[in-house]
Amino acid sequence: MKTIWARIGQPITLPCEFESSGGGTVAGSSDQIEWRKNGTLIFNAFGTEPGFFASDYEGRLSRASAMDLTIHSVQLRDQSIFLCSISHFARGKTVGGRENGEMIRLIVNVIPRILEPLDGLKIFVREKGTLRQNCTADGIPSPSIKWSKKTKNGNWRVMSYNRQLIIEQFSADDEGEFNCEAQNFEGTENAIVTIKRRKPLRIDRENASLLNKTAVEGAAVFWHCSVEQRKQWDEGKVRIHWTKGGKAMNAMEIGLRAHFNDEDGSFGIMFLRRTDSGEFECHATLLDSADELLERDSVKVQLNVQYKPEVSPKSRRFYALRSDHPAELECLLEANPLPTLVKWTKNGRPFTEHTEKSIDRNLLRSAVRIPSVNFRESAGIYTCEAENIIGVTEPNLEIHVVVAEAPKFTRTPAPKYIVKAGERVEIECEGFGEVPIRRVWSRREDGRHRSFSEAKFSIANAAHSDHGIYCCVLISSVATVSREVQLIVHETAPQCATNFRVQCEGQQRLAVFWMPGYPGGDLSQSFRVFYQQIRNDSLNVANEAWKMIGQRTDQSKLHVDHLEVFGEYEFKLEASNRIGTTNCTIPGTYYTCSKLDRPTNFLLVNSTAGVLILKWDEVKEANSYRIKGRKNCDAKKEGKSNWEEIAKTSGSTYNLSSAKLNLGPDSKCCAELVVQSVRPPFSASDHSSAVILPIGCSVGTLSSNLSSLFLFSLCTIFLLFLLFVLFFFYSLHRGNEKARQKQRSAKNGKNSKEKKQCQKRMSDRRMERRIGQIGMGSAEGTPFGDSFDNE
Domain with 133 in it: what CATH number? Predict the structure, then answer.
């Protein structure tokens, strides 16, 4: 394949060469010549005829010498693969041999063209800012880019070979003419731009008119907003516009009364209204030649429109008050500034008992309180008048007060009506009042009232759904009174049970309680309870089918067991009697009492500059984890603080910024970190074991605590030892005292025994002596001998 390069817009001749002929081949008068582009026929001729050309090339193709083909004014779309061929036909034959020439690849080159920046563009760069200017060009082959700056002597100095020219800290020395040059071997293209510095865009805040303003309703105000960059302003590069509350003026009604002057940035509002009060903002923007925003500045001013007091449309002008009840009349006043004086009159006489309270910035509430309404002293015409520095209310508020009794029932319905299913129900309720009344009926359903305004309550055929509490209501401007009526419908299916309660009694057990509804008459009713799991795990899955709890029962309590751990359930109850069945949904979603395991192996894996890498074992049922921390400080100073949540994550690792711990280098505190497993709506797990930071905290920061503890323990041991010694000596002394007492007792006992023995011996001796004397006397014939014998 042969490659030929052509320049766009220039002619090119494509040669038709054959390998068999060693160069060119001359076509005979009967030979057919064809040229194809990417397989599509674009030229066809016989012999030396001019031939036929494809319509797309009409006027740009011509036959050159021999079998060559010339393309005039080459276009980019001509870039393709061309092939010539010749078919030889013998005389009198329609089929001949075909021979293809060498394939030709035509490549079209394009001279560079600069897309950005435009030649002659003026660029302004903020002083000490950064210039970033692109030079974008196309061409084939892709051109190279060069940035140059014109020096004072008129030469060009190369600044960069990159597509983007970057100059940081732009200053006066950087100003000048810069050339963006794009070049390939087909040619060169240049774009010269002028780059100048400028000071930051700034609105002239010294302008005396650019201040907050206060004006009276109906007057006019003006502001003048200009910038300090007058040169750019004169060249039309600065745009000034005004907004109110962030909205353009032409998008609001105020724009119809506003005046703008683009030449000097002045802005004014004619015929001021109270709604014009608010914040206005002057915006100045600096644009480049392509209207791209370069810089902006803005100044805010406040407008305060003052007006005299006016009665608010929300003020009531008629009151019907209930006798013997307290009441309050109010007068709502809109004013700026708020009224400094409020006057009330009753039937033309001053009424001094009133109070004022500011409700809003420009709204004042003045009220007259009547402790107990009575016809003679309370009825009449009251007026309210207010005054501020702008003026007085015109007209005043005039309030008409009448006193009336509350509506009364002339026909009161019975408290209870009992009917059978299919029977007609009619309940009459009538009343009257001194002021117009309105009578409505309402039905209480699920704690709410549904109203219907039929004067006479009637049901053609009472049914199960009509059972309930109804209320007849008399409404007037004085008071509202009502009477409740219970409608009981016999011989129907049971009414829905009430007071549903589902109680958790374990990780896989729930108890369901309810209060049976009306059974439909003197009928027995039974119940069935169904449950459905609506979420099986942390992912939302399809609801399971309804399942029945146990068997039918006449009790008002059932238990359901073997539920899923971390299960979520809803319930419905079915009440039945011999007439029918009623299905009732138990409101709410209920959960088993499942508890997550606490994370284990909570560790500080690594600690880099400013980042702590924490890791723990995953908990199977957890959706996320909550990292908590607290400070553990010297007990003499701060003490332990409460646990505070630091971070929440779904993974089992977390990169914690040490800045969140707020531990300074001079801090005497340690940080304790724990992690909890979390799975809403279930309770979080217990805390994991704690990680104490910094690493050496237990040795360094807490050493004072340990020293204090050791000293306290040592003192305690010494005191105990001292007490033991004292007790020992006391016990020894007591023992000695007891021993001495025993010795004294023993000695005294021995002495008394010896004394007794001595006394006995002496007594025995005296007795012996005495007996001896008697014996001797009888032998000698004592004068007592006869006496003893007679005895």
Answer: 2.60.40.10
Give, as one character, the DSSP assignment of residue 713: H
Residue showing tokens 């007026």: 383
Any idea which residue has 């040669």 for tokens?
Answer: 15
Q: Tokens in use for 548?
A: 């029945």
Task: Please check whether residues 94 and 151 belong to one and the same domain.
Answer: no
- Same domain for 84 and 16: yes
Q: Residue range 366-379: average pLDDT?
A: 91
The pTM (predicted TM-score) of the whole model is: 0.47
pLDDT band at 494 (very low <50, low <70, confident <90, very high): very high
What b/e string do you get for 736-751 counting C-beta neighbours within 10 Å, with b at 16 or more? eeeeeeeeeeeeeeee
Question: E strands along 96-155, which residues?
Answer: 97-100, 104-116, 122-126, 131-134, 136-140, 144-150
Q: What b-and-e string marks burial along 188-223, b requiring 16 or more CB atoms within 10 Å of the CB?
A: ebebbbebebbeebebbeeeeebeebebebeeebeb
Hey, how many other C-beta atoms are within 10 angstroms of the C-beta on 48? Answer: 15
Mean pLDDT to the nearest integer, 612-622: 89
Residues 150 and 222 in one domain: no
> Is 236 in a helix, a strand, or coil?
coil
Sequence-distant (≥ 6) Cβ neighbours of residue 254 within 8 angstroms: 244, 269, 276
The domain containing residue 219 runs over which residues? 213-306
| 624 DSSP β-pair partners | 678
Q: Are residues 90 and 22 in the same domain?
A: yes
- 101 and 6 housed in the same domain: yes
Residues 27 and 12 reside in one and the same domain: yes
Radius of gyration for the alpha carbons in the chain, expressed in angstroms and rounded: 57
**DSSP element (H, E) containing 443:** strand 437-445
91 burial level (CB within 10 Å; 0-12, 13-18, 19+):
exposed
Q: Report d(CA 279, CA 301) in Å as an integer.
A: 6
Residue 388 and residue 422 in one domain: no
Amino acid 640: pLDDT: 62
Residue 58 domain-assigned (yes or no): yes
Nearest alpha-carbon partner for 514 in 529, 497, 527, 531: 497
Helix (H, G, I), strand (E, B) or coil at 661: helix
66-101: pLDDT as tens digits: 788 899 888 888 889 999 998 887 655 555 678 888
DSSP 203: B
Q: Say how many C-beta atoms besides its own lie within 10 A of residue 716's C-beta.
A: 10
Q: Please answer whether residues 197 and 166 qualify as being in contact, where contact means their C-beta atoms are separated by less than 8 angstroms.
A: no
Helix spans in 93-139 (H): none
Mean pLDDT of the chain: 83
In a domain, 252, yes or no: yes
Residue 124: the pLDDT is 79
Q: Which of 306, 337, 359 is the last residue of a domain?
A: 306
Contacts of 789 (CB under 8 A, 6+ apart): none
Last residue of a domain, one of 250, 282, 306: 306
Beta-sheet pairing, 144-150 with 176-184: antiparallel
The total number of structural domains that make up the chain: 7
Torsion angle in degrees (nearest 10) through CA of 202, 203, 204, 208: -160
| Domain presence at residue 738 | no
User: Do the domain assignments include residue 152?
Assistant: yes
> How many other CB atoms sit within 10 Å of the CB of residue 677?
25
Question: Do residues 274 and 334 share a domain?
Answer: no
Q: What is the distance in angstroms between the CA of the first residue and the CA of the last residue of the chain?
A: 189
Amino acid at 752: S
584, 536 Cβ separation under 8 angstroms? no
